[in-house]
Specification:
Radius of gyration of chain A: 28 Å
Oligomer: heterodimer
Helix content of chain A: 25-40%
Strand content of chain B: 15-25%
Distance between the termini of chain A: 72 Å
Shape of chain B: elongated
CATH topology of the largest domain in chain A: OB fold (Dihydrolipoamide Acetyltransferase, E2P)
Strand content of chain A: 15-25%
Number of strands of chain B: 16
CATH superfamily of the largest domain in chain A: Protein of unknown function (DUF3299)
């Protein structure tokens, strides 16, 4: 009796546990599947991340500022401390005092008020205003400062798959879809040896730290500009 | 006898099905690694086609189109830029150098590009690499031509060969400029860029072959090569031009001024930024490929699971015997796990071998057809991660038959009827 009962009871036992076994099976398959696809796409362009990117592109208009892009509602995100000795600056700091866009248009207020809108004279005044806006001076006080600045990337040079030189600008999509920023809102960045941004990183917000060089601040406008050589960089979303 | 030897000996009796499983795994591994390899190489080849050029200027069109025809010689220009406009921009203070480009003719399927000798000085690719004239010299005369490495290779041309350029982009000879042959004076070293597949001549040469062509056909008054030389061969228009700036921080301002040039609608693009944008548009395809090969791998692993599960029945007696001579539950599971890992590792090794074999065969062909050099290198971090995840995934999958085998070994006595 006992010998007959034993296998039977074991088999009921096993039958009873079939369900957890099936669950385990399903889980193992899922784990294996996820494990392989997730791991296999850890290259430059993970599928999940790119779908996030796609929504980013939908929700953020070209020309979005950093705050709009990161949806911080003007509240500064808790910032990662810049490397030792580097001071975090804002894009407004790159404009010398007395030359902000508001200052420039203030200079033209009277003349704009005096002309008939749409007349040739008016066009002339606006052209002058635009020219002055385009040629905003750089801020010589920043020369040699070790700074950290966040912004968007217009790639210039690649090494393999990585962006190694780029123009840093304050607006998303500046190079392609919206009017480009003036010279004093553009920083030419050369990364130090071994550093690089992937194309996906270069599509989002990045931070850059390094020593700012200011060229032609007081001499020739045509050579003016901010440069950071030997820069370090990274994606801004770590903030 | 240790477990490994038992596993090996046992596997020998199920050779065929296990070998087939190894083969399935190998194919999926090759596919995964191959897609990764092709993606990386084509990306880096694409991104490194042009460097140190600050702006590319052409008639008003989409940035991608301008980039494709001016750098990759794919597609055609929507319109030309007049020579006067080109000169006025080349004379600007901010502009350090310009290289004019004139496209539209071909020779036996290879594009012919009219340019100035500045092209050899200023065109750069990869990391600040310049073009090198491997043999011969740069073009000087109107009817001189400098060949890209692939052109010379494929057509078997050497210095001194005379070539006839066809009008338009057909490779047939019926629209040939056969009265004005060009002489090969130089051959460039291989670059891995579309330059390899281009025939370079002077702008005057392009003008010369078109002097007696009017209204899209050859006019009744024909001029021979010598007579054409007497004419003023300054071009009236060019297809596009490359610009290098004195100060690259000014790129945006010059770009805007060219885009808003009052006398002629033009587009100026930043090659680097346009390349990145272009890559993002086409990278979707690559992601889809990756997902598909991921699924192929999952199917491969499931196939392996099926094979092992079906052989479990055959092995009931074997396992029962092992249990009776003192094998513990952990031994049974380890045995199945070991077998799986052997199969998967063999599959991975075979897959990598297959990949390198295919690369070696396909490399010259791919390089010739697409200009992408599939360099044979060691497996990189991503690829090792792929292999690792395949093995780990297989380990998880193997737990299922392992646990089943163990459970059965409890119920089955030695007296089981198979």
């Amino acid at each position: 009796m006992v010998t007959v009962m034993n296998p039977r009871s074991t088999s009921t036992l096993v039958r009873g546990r079939r369900t957890p076994l099936a669950v385990l099976f399903a889980m193992a398959v899922v784990v294996a599947a996820c494990g392989s696809t997730a791991e296999s796409t850890t290259g430059e362009l993970p599928a999940e991340e790119s779908s996030v990117d796609a929504t980013t592109e939908q929700t953020h208009a070209f020309g979005a500022s950093l705050d709009e892009f990161l949806e911080t509602d003007g509240e500064k995100p808790a910032s990662a401390p810049p490397p030792d000795g580097f001071e975090e600056i804002e894009w407004e700091d790159l404009v010398p005092p007395g030359s902000t866009p508001a200052d420039i248009s203030a200079k033209f207020d009277e003349r704009i008020a005096a002309v008939v809108p749409g007349s040739p004279e008016a066009n002339e005044v606006f052209a002058e205003l635009q020219a002055e806006y385009d040629n905003q001076p750089v801020n010589p006080d920043l020369a040699g400062e070790a700074i950290q600045l966040a912004g968007f990337v217009a790639p210039l040079t690649y090494s393999g798959e990585l962006v190694t030189e780029f123009l840093l600008v304050p607006y998303f999509g500046a190079c392609i879809h919206v009017p480009p920023p003036p010279v004093n809102q553009t920083v030419l960045v050369s990364l130090r040896e071994g550093e690089g941004l992937t194309i996906d990183e270069s599509w989002g917000a990045v931070w850059v730290s390094g020593t700012l060089t200011v060229d032609g601040a007081e001499t020739d406008l045509a050579t003016a500009g901010y440069t950071i050589s030997d820069a370090q960089t990274g994606a801004y979303d770590g903030y | 006898m240790n477990l490994l030897r038992i596993a090996l000996k046992s596997a020998r009796f199920r050779k065929t099905s296990l070998l087939l499983t190894v083969f399935t795994i190998a194919i999926s591994v090759t596919l995964l690694l191959g897609v990764d390899k092709i993606r990386k190489e084509s990306k880096s080849s694409l991104l490194n086609t042009v460097s140190q050029t600050d702006l590319i200027v052409g008639a008003r069109s989409s940035p991608t189109n301008l980039l494709l025809y001016s750098v990759f010689r794919i597609g055609n220009a929507t319109n030309n830029v007049t020579w006067e406009t080109y000169e006025s921009i080349a004379d600007r203070d901010e502009v350090a150098w310009t290289v004019p480009i004139s496209l539209g003719d071909s020779h036996r399927g290879f594009r012919v590009m009219g340019t100035s000798t500045d092209y050899f000085d200023f065109y750069q690719y990869g990391e600040r690499r310049s073009l090198v004239v491997g043999s011969g010299e740069r073009f000087e005369g109107v009817y001189d031509a400098v060949l890209g490495a692939d052109v010379a290779n494929e057509l078997g041309y050497t210095i001194g060969t005379e070539i006839i350029i066809s009008h338009g982009l057909v490779s047939a000879d019926f629209a040939g400029h056969d009265d004005k042959p060009f002489t090969v004076v130089g051959i460039l070293e291989k670059t891995g860029t579309p330059v390899d597949r281009t025939i370079h001549v002077s702008l005057a040469g392009i003008e010369a072959i078109h002097v007696d062509w009017q209204d899209g056909g050859r006019s009744s008054v024909t001029l021979d090569a010598e007579q054409a030389l007497q004419l003023d061969l300054t071009p009236t228009s060019i297809t596009a031009f490359l610009v290098g700036l004195e100060n690259r921080a000014e790129t945006f301002r010059v770009q805007r001024e060219i885009n808003e040039y009052p006398d002629e609608p033009m587009s100026a693009i930043l090659p680097g930024a346009t390349l990145a944008e272009f890559w993002r548009t086409i990278s979707t395809i690559e992601q889809i490929l990756f997902v598909i090969s991921g699924f192929v791998l999952v199917v491969g692993l499931l196939g392996m699971l099926t094979t092992i599960l079906s052989t479990l029945n055959e092995r009931r007696r074997e396992i029962a015997v092992l249990r009776s001579i003192g094998a513990r539950a952990s031994h049974v599971i380890s045995l199945i796990l070991l077998e799986t890992l052997m199969v998967v590792t063999a599959g991975c090794i075979a897959g990598v071998g297959l990949l390198y074999g295919l690369l070696a065969i396909a490399r010259p062909m791919v390089a010739r057809r697409t200009g992408v050099d599939l360099a044979i290198t060691w497996l990189d971090a991503t690829q090792l991660a792929i292999l690792g995840s395949v093995i780990v995934g297989a380990g998880f999958v193997a737990l299922i038959p392992g646990i089943i085998a163990y459970r059965r070994s409890i119920q089955d006595g030695l007296a089981l009827k198979v």
